[in-house]
Design a protein that fits this description.
The complex is a heterodimer of chains A (about 160) and B (about 425). With about 160 residues, chain A is of the alpha/beta class. Chain A has one domain: Rossmann fold. Chain A is built from 5 helices and 7 strands, in the order αβαββββαβαβα. In chain A, a hairpin with a 2-residue loop joins strand 3 and strand 4. In chain B, helix 5 links the parallel strand 2 and strand 3. The chains are: A alpha/beta (about 160), B alpha/beta (about 425).
Chain lengths: ~160, ~425
């Protein structure tokens, strides 16, 4: 089971991204307690911005007071978005778990790309977002990325509800 | 499901990018946030901002909402991932270099650069113990052969100032990338309306926003844009990829991915060098950009008309405008600058230095000053002004002779500009006969 990943744009559509960000429960697979790691930055940022963040990492007990679980299947609460900070080779197994727990989205961070994982998730009814950072996309569409001169690509004469 | 439209036109983005209506007040125009600092919501937020865990305002030397709106507008028009603004074009360039260079590094730069850039490169880089080498911008082999094991950057201008040479961005980007180094382009003369260097593989774009971007000649400013696509973790740039001693061991590229270079440029270089853009200048420059496409069309149309006219004038021995049909750069213009190669060019007067001075003294619509890219037409005699610090060899390498006149054609009516030029040329002929 596989898909063609030469062009990732099908898994980077703004509509899918904005829809995924509407869901409050996020599991961060591979989240580290090291404050200098990207996974820590992202998990902390989403937590600060009102999401229910659940770290999934067998090597961690607790990060920012959030209990860490060894596997997605161990998380007792529902998960909407599975955000992945693991090697691409680990994705198929994570995709199977995402399907099993009834997640709505499998979000693969920068450089995490797995054709097999995408195919497993989609066959199980889980939408995929690939090679994108959930923190950046949140900051682009809902947050404050525009405060630091980044290109949000937002063109709108509507008043933001900040 | 019906998908809402995406607005992608250049004119639309020039007017809207970076400036949605203010969420607090509904102000439609871009508010000027004339403040030095920002009240934190709480202690945890303050810590998160300083740790860069959250996008937040701390101090206007590092970020400001009006400056950010200007930055986003430029980043959007250049097709970059973001931008950082500075007090001037040279401040922007200096910071862009400072962020990626270390003592012992080597920079390869076009020999046909703005005089101020030549001076900056020669003296600032020497003080940083960075080696510098100028190469003929048109000679691909010179770029390829010039890259050494410690080379960290290739640098050139889209349209050379003042020689008017057109740079083959795509070819030199390929040469640089084959050696794992980035290409930085000064796109001041083209503006993103005429050319977007990132589309052709350039990695970093710098601007003097003082020029065509503002257009009004009221405000000094500069900006750095990055594509976000260069792999700073390729082993050649530990200064960006490895833990930073200037930011408690943060690995900028790993932590911020495509934003890594710009985050370092802002949160370290701008923080430490301090040459920030003022909110008022950001407002003025962002206002200017709203009409950038309309102005640039008039600039290039006038420039071509006047260049053609000068070709027919007896006292003029050569017109160096790449938009002319017989230009050696015609193919590169067609590829990179199809709407026209800007509005700044040089021409040579037969009478040398004295003719140059006399020509300028007899103009009354062109303003004699050291700037380009104003809505008003400007003129200068490089040999006695902007390029005065260069010796004869360097002058010749920049394509300048003693009788060379540089003009920046404005958006007035072409016939009035031609009348002014014709009168000054007449005075020249009378004085020499």
């Amino acid at each position: 089971m596989s898909v063609d990943i030469t062009d990732l744009s099908a898994w980077q559509q703004p509509e899918t991204i904005m829809a995924a960000l509407q869901h409050p429960q996020i599991a961060v697979v591979g989240m580290s307690s090291n404050e200098l790691r990207a996974s820590n930055f992202v998990g902390y940022y989403m937590h600060r911005n009102g999401y229910q963040v659940t770290p999934v990492n067998p090597r961690e007990d607790e990060i920012y007071g959030l209990k860490s679980f060894a596997a997605l299947q161990d998380v007792p609460t529902p998960i909407d978005v599975v955000d992945v900070f693991r090697d691409s080779s680990a994705v198929p197994e994570i995709a199977e778990a995402a399907v099993e727990i009834g997640a709505k989205y499998l979000w693969l961070q920068f450089g995490v790309i797995s054709a097999e994982g995408i195919a497993i998730a989609e066959a199980g009814g889980v939408q995929c977002i690939v090679d994108k950072c959930i923190k950046i996309e949140h900051a682009r569409y809902q947050g404050r990325m525009h405060w630091l001169g980044f290109n949000t690509e937002r063109i709108s004469a509507q008043r933001r509800k900040d | 499901m019906t998908v809402p439209p995406r607005f992608t036109g250049f004119h639309t983005r020039a007017v809207h990018a970076g400036a949605s209506p203010d969420p607090q007040t509904g102000s439609r125009a871009m508010p000027i946030h004339q403040t030095t600092s920002y009240v934190f919501e709480d202690a945890e937020s303050a810590a998160a901002y300083f740790n860069l865990q959250e996008y937040g305002n701390t101090y206007s030397r590092i970020m400001n909402p009006t400056v950010a709106a200007f930055e986003e507008r430029v980043a959007n028009l250049e097709g970059g991932v973001g931008a950082v603004a500075f007090a001037s074009g040279l401040a922007a360039q200096n910071a862009a270099l400072f962020t990626l260079l270390e003592p012992g590094d080597h920079v390869l730069a076009s020999a046909a650069l703005y005089g101020g850039s030549v001076t900056q490169f020669k003296h600032v880089l020497r003080k940083m113990s960075v080696e510098l080498e100028f190469v003929d911008p048109d000679d691909h082999n010179a770029w390829r052969d010039g890259i050494k094991s410690n080379t960290k950057l290739c640098f050139a201008e889209t349209i050379g100032n003042p020689s008017g040479c057109i740079f083959d961005i795509e070819s030199v980007a390929e040469i640089a990338h084959a050696a794992d180094i980035p290409l930085m382009i000064d796109n001041t003369f083209a503006t993103p309306y005429l050319c977007q260097p990132l589309k052709y593989g350039a990695d970093i774009v710098v601007h003097s926003a003082t020029k065509f971007m503002g257009g009004h000649g009221t405000s000094i400013g500069g900006v750095v844009v990055e594509s976000g696509e260069f792999d700073w973790s390729n082993g050649r740039f530990p200064v960006i990829a490895e833990p930073s001693p200037a930011y408690h061991g943060l690995k900028f590229h790993e932590t911020f991915g495509t934003f890594g270079y710009l985050m370092k440029l802002r949160s370290e270089t701008l923080r430490d060098l301090g040459a920030c853009m003022s909110p008022f200048n950001a407002f003025m420059l962002a206002q200017g950009i709203e009409t950038l496409p309309l102005r640039m069309r008039q600039h290039v149309s006038n420039a071509l008309t006047i260049a053609r006219h000068l070709q027919g004038c007896e006292a003029v021995t050569a017109v160096h405008y790449a938009g002319l049909e017989d230009s050696r750069y015609a193919d590169l213009v067609a590829k990179y600058l199809p709407e026209g190669p800007g509005a700044v060019f040089c021409f040579d007067l037969a009478g040398g230095r004295q003719a140059g001075i006399r020509f300028i003294e007899n103009l009354s619509l062109f303003s004699h000053l050291a700037n380009v890219g104003d809505a008003k037409s400007l003129v200068i005699h490089p040999a006695t002004t902007t390029h005065r610090q260069l010796n004869d060899t360097e002058l010749a390498a920049s394509g300048i002779g003693p009788g060379t006149i540089r003009v920046s054609i404005g958006i007035e009516d072409a016939q009035d500009l031609i009348a002014d030029i014709d009168y000054a040329l007449t005075q020249l002929t009378q004085s020499t006969s």
